Amino acid sequence: MTHSLPWLQPEQEFPPIDQTWGEQDPIPGLLAAGSTLDAAHLRAAYGQGIFPWFSEGQPVLWWSPNPRMILRPDEFRLRRSLRKSLQKFRDAPGCEIRIDSSFSTVMQHCAQAPRDGQNGTWIVQSIIEAYTELHQQGAAHSVETWVNGKLVGGLYCVALGKAVFGESMFALQTDASKIALSALVALCHAHQVPQIDCQQATAHLSFMGGREIPREQFAQTVRAQAQLPDMHWQFAPLYWDQLLSTPEV
C-alpha cells in the first residue's frame, strides 16, 4: 500500500529508514522531502544512511535506497590498465594526491561534469553550500589528483568517524578520477574502513568491485563506524605501495 511522503519541518527528525518508499510506491528509495539543507541535517542524515539528491527547482529530497551499493576497500579490483596508470602516476615527478586543498573547486568541477543520460546536475548551489559547511566542520573531504601543479581530477566524500560516503567524481585527464578513487580506497584500507558508500549501483562501480548489500546491514555498519575516532585525512605515498601489492585481477 502506497503511503504519503513526509514533509520535514526544519527541526523535525528524519523518519526511520524502514519507512522509505519501496517497490510498490511511486519512487522507490525516497524517504522524505523538505526545504532545509545544511551541515546539521547532512550529519543527521548520513549517520542514519540517508542522503539528499534533487534537481534545481525541486524540494530537498532525502533517499535511503535498498539495497545499497558499497565498495569494500579489501575487495577493490585493481585492473591491469588502472594498475599501470597508478604505477606511472606514483613514479612520475609532479604527480601527487592532495586532500582538502581545493574542496570547493572539486565540487564545482563535479557539478559541471557531464553525466550519461542526465541533463543538468544535482549538485545545485544549495548542495554546494551545505557540503562546504560540512567540509569546514571537518566532515567532508576532497581527494585530488594533481599533475604538474594542476588539478586534473578528484572526488568529494563525507566521513563521520570511519563511516565514509563517496559522493561525486570528475576528470579532466584520462583516469584522473579513477586515480583519486584508488587513493581513497588506499587511504580507507590503511585506516581499516570496512566500506565506502556508493549509494546506487552502476556498471562502472561493479567492475571495480562494488556490490549491493541490504540497507539495514549498511546502516548498522554506518552507526558503528560513525562512533569511532575520525580518520587522519592525509595521503601517504606508501599507501600506493600497499595498494599495488594486491594480486592482479
Descriptive report:
This protein has 249 residues and is α+β, with helices and mostly antiparallel strands. Helices cover 33% and strands 23% of the residues. It folds into two domains: 61 residues, Alpha-Beta Plaits, CATH 3.30.70.3550; 176 residues, Aminopeptidase. Strand 3 and strand 4 form a beta hairpin. The radius of gyration is 18 Å and the shape is globular. Functions in the N-end rule pathway of protein degradation where it conjugates Leu, Phe and, less efficiently, Met from aminoacyl-tRNAs to the N-termini of proteins containing an N-terminal arginine or lysine. GO terms for molecular function: leucyl-tRNA--protein transferase activity. InterPro entries: Acyl_CoA_acyltransferase, Leu/Phe-tRNA_Trfase, Leu/Phe-tRNA_Trfase_C, Leu/Phe-tRNA_Trfase_N. Belongs to the L/F-transferase family.
Topology:
Blueprint: E1 7-8, E2 30-34, H1 39-46, E3 51-52, E4 60-63, E5 68-71, H2 80-91, E6 95-99, H3 103-112, H4 125-136, E7 140-147, E8 150-160, E9 163-171, H5 176-190, E10 196-199, H6 203-207, E11 211-213, H7 215-226, H8 238-244
Helix pairs in contact: 1-4, 5-8
